[in-house]
Amino acid sequence: MPINYKTYPPNWFSYYVPSVRLRSQNKCEECGLTNGQKVYSIQIAKKKGKKTIYRRIWLPMLAPLEHKSLKIVTVILTVAHLDNDAHNQKVELSRLKHLCQRCHLQYDAHYKALKRKCGYYCDSPLCSNISCIHKNPQPCTPIHTHA
Questions:
Q1: Does 106 map to a domain?
Q2: How many structural domains comprise the chain?
Q3: Is residue 140 a contact partner of residue 116, using CB atoms and an 8 Å limit?
Q4: What are phi and psi of 106, to 5 degrees?
């Protein structure tokens, strides 16, 4: 999904991104992989009841490896909003993390499942409604839960 940087603070690229990069020493703050590092990505299958769930694991490229689902991936670090609120103009550095694409996707998975349940995704920079679209026909903010 494309990022709408119009919803971000005006100093996002001049202050926030460099500050988080400096703090992380250009490494993922979850798994420790370095920005630009090459890793092996291997698909594994796990049985969950009658379903088979496929996941990819990442392994450092320490030795030649062969596997039928092997891919070589370049680690790309991005700054993640820990509150999942890109509309938040008063963002604090403590609520941001430098994450690789794999850790970022894992971190956002629960939130994205909630958005699918709601059936709506808001990308409006003017959005301020905190109620769910099913209760109110106006856009939801990115932060809401279903009790």
A1: no
A2: 1
A3: no
A4: -65, -40
Q: For the segment 54-71, what is each residue's pLDDT rounded down to a tens digit?
A: 888 888 887 777 777 889
pTM, entire model: 0.71
Strand 71-74, strand 51-60: pairing: unpaired
pLDDT tens for 33-92 read: 999 999 999 898 988 889 998 888 888 887 777 777 889 999 999 999 887 766 666 788
Quick check: is 68 in a domain?
yes
Cβ-based neighbour number of residue 121 at 10 Å: 13
- 66 within domain boundaries: yes
Of residues 126, 136, 133, 132, the one with CA closest to residue 144: 132
What are the φ and ψ backbone dihedral angles of 17, each rounded to 5 degrees? -60, -50
Distance CA 10, CA 32 (A): 29
- 32 φ/ψ sector (left φ>0, alpha ψ -120 to 50, else beta): left
Examine residue 137 and state whether it is found in any structural domain, yes or no.
Answer: no
Is residue 85 within 8 A of residue 142, CB to CB? The reply is yes
CA separation for the pair 102, 77 (Å, rounded): 9
Residue 111: φ, ψ to 5°: -60, -40
- What range defines the domain where residue 45 resides? 38-74
